[in-house]
Every structure is written in structure tokens, then in C-alpha cells.
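Field log, afternoon session.

UNIT: design team B
ACTIVITY: writing a sequence onto a fixed backbone
BACKBONE:
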């Protein structure tokens, strides 16, 4: 057989394998994304309806405890804070862990507004539904944007803001809808792409490990927790709609403008891993310089998900930040 024919055969086999893999991934999604959020959600949680979008919330700790609102990052949900929730409840806090749509057990909508202002309003309505007048707010990664937006939208409702390796894109160029990725994400044909990558269990370990510096923190049990909501109907397509909004729609809201962020009237603490390659620590330094009085706590050898990678270091730092009196109380 000639070298050219060998190369052609190799290309054919590679393409056929790729097609089979994508088809198998789509078939897996169609056979496994069958449960409704209300049927599958943890029994100790509740749903809050916000303008037709159902938001799932888990509340833990004493009813009389000071409220702490936890806002997760990309791909996470209220069940992936792991040992942090017990640590906070043991310290006497009332923990409110929310699933920002379309993550976790919240609505899997392809038509919902996924902008920062819309997500911040959902957080505010959750506090309203739980009759919480004021809370300490912790926002991690992508959740840092809605958490900061909430603090700028309704500062009277936020006692203290803690941002953990937050993805704010303060100085980044505006999103460009004309990129190839955005054109793909805008199309209904995005499902095969996402099914073969982002929501494929074969890739979930690799994806999660790409966010952390300490790979050993991605245990089978923790990975299983991240995968739980993948069994919900429309999870893959809803993720595609969110990804398009996050990466392609023009960023909007008070928290996207440095001049607005500089006027933040809520005490701010930053907790950052110095080995974070997703949102490098230079972004924390920029934010600290922008907002007077900001405290920065650095965790050494830790990547983008401190509560997963090094809870024994992260939890005391967070507890100290939450317990620090606001300047007006000193």
C-alpha cells in the first residue's frame, strides 16, 4: 500500500472515530438527561421563582445565625461547597447556598436572561423569599460577578462581600459575537459539541482538574457531586445558552465598569490562590487598588478553587473575613 493511501486511511479512521464519539456522546445525553429538577433535587432544598425562572436553594445552620449567601462558580452548584458548609454552620452561621441558573437544580432554560444584572436580581429575590434583610455574601469565580453586582445594586442588603478567585473581566475587551466559538454556541447544533466535551463524563475530570493546581483534590466522590445535575433534562442545551450569554453577549451591569466598582460601599475582602491560572492574582491586585480599604488574603500553592483544593487553609481565612466587623461598627 502506498504512503498516500495509508495517510488517507488514517484520516478516514480518525474522522470516523470522531463522528462515532460525537454520536455516542449525543446518545448518552439523550438517554441520561431525563430527570426534572424538582424530582431530583436534594430534599432539604427549596425552589424560589424569580420572573418565571426557578432557583434552587439549600439552607443550613441555625435559623438565628447571621446569614451567609454562597454563590458558586462555573459548573458548580450548592452541593459542591463540600466541607465549607459544615464549617460555617459549626461557626453559627445560617448558610444559604444558591444554584445560579442554569447550574445545579435551577431552571434549565435556553431563553432565560443570564446577564449579571439578572443573576444579581435572582440573588436579591432569594434573600427576599427567605426574609433575609442583610447577608454576608461570598462569590466564587463566575459567581463573583453576580455577587459584586448585588453589592452595587443593593448595598443595604450586603453586610460584607468576599470574592474568591473572582472572574470579573474588569479590563477585558468587550465580548465579540462574531468569533467562530460564538457562532457555534448561538446555533442549535451546539449540543453535539457540548455533549462530547463539557457535559461528557469522560471529560469532566479533566475539565475540573484544569481549574486547580492540586490535582489530587479532584477525588471520585467530589467529581460525582459535580456530575449530579448532569442527569437533568435539557442540561446540555441550557449550558450552551448560558455559555453563549457569558462569552458572547455584551457584558452589562454596574460591576462591569471599573468606575462603578471603585464606588463600592460594602466592605470587601479578596481571597485568592497564587497558583490560579484562570483568574491570575494580578486581577486581585487590580481590584484591591481599585476599591479603597480592600483586604487581600493570598493562599499559597492553591489554584482557582480554594475550597476544593485546600479547605484547611481556606476555611479559617474565610471565617476570619466574615467575622471582621465592618468599619462602621468599629
Amino acid at each position: 500500500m502506498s504512503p498516500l493511501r495509508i495517510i488517507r486511511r488514517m484520516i478516514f479512521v480518525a474522522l470516523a472515530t470522531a463522528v462515532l464519539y460525537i454520536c455516542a456522546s449525543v446518545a448518552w445525553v439523550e438517554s441520561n438527561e431525563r430527570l426534572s429538577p424538582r424530582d431530583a433535587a436534594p430534599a432539604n432544598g427549596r425552589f424560589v421563582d424569580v420572573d418565571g425562572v426557578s432557583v434552587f436553594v439549600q439552607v443550613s445552620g441555625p435559623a438565628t445565625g447571621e446569614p451567609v449567601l454562597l454563590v458558586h462558580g462555573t459548573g458548580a452548584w450548592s452541593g459542591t461547597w463540600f466541607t465549607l458548609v459544615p464549617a460555617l454552620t459549626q461557626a453559627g452561621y445560617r448558610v444559604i447556598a444558591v444554584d445560579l441558573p442554569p447550574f445545579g437544580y435551577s431552571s434549565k432554560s435556553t431563553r432565560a436572561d443570564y446577564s449579571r444584572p439578572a443573576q444579581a436580581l435572582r440573588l436579591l429575590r432569594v434573600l427576599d423569599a427567605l426574609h433575609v434583610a442583610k447577608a454576608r455574601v461570598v462569590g466564587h469565580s463566575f459567581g463573583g460577578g453576580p455577587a459584586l453586582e448585588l453589592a452595587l445594586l443593593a448595598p443595604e442588603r450586603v453586610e460584607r462581600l468576599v470574592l474568591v478567585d473572582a472572574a470579573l473581566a474588569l479590563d477585558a475587551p468587550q465580548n465579540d459575537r462574531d468569533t467562530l466559538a460564538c457562532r457555534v454556541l448561538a446555533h442549535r447544533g451546539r449540543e453535539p459539541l457540548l455533549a462530547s466535551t463539557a457535559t461528557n463524563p469522560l471529560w469532566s475530570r479533566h475539565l475540573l482538574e484544569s481549574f486547580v493546581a492540586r490535582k489530587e483534590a479532584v477525588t471520585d466522590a467530589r467529581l460525582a457531586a459535580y456530575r449530579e445535575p448532569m442527569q437533568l433534562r435539557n442540561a446540555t442545551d441550557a449550558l450552551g445558552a448560558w455559555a453563549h450569554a457569558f462569552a458572547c453577549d455584551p457584558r452589562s451591569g454596574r460591576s462591569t465598569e471599573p468606575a462603578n466598582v471603585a464606588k463600592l460601599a460594602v466592605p470587601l475582602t479578596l481571597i485568592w490562590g497564587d497558583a490560579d491560572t484562570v483568574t491570575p492574582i494580578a486581577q486581585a491586585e487590580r481590584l484591591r487598588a481599585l476599591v479603597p480599604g480592600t483586604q487581600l488574603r493570598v493562599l499559597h500553592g492553591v489554584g482557582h478553587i480554594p475550597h476544593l483544593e485546600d479547605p484547611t487553609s481556606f476555611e479559617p481565612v474565610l471565617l476570619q473575613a466574615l467575622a471582621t466587623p465592618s468599619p462602621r461598627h468599629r
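LOG NOTE: Residues 37-329 form a domain with the Rossmann fold fold (CATH 3.40.50.1820).
NEXT ACTIVITY: expression trials, pending approval
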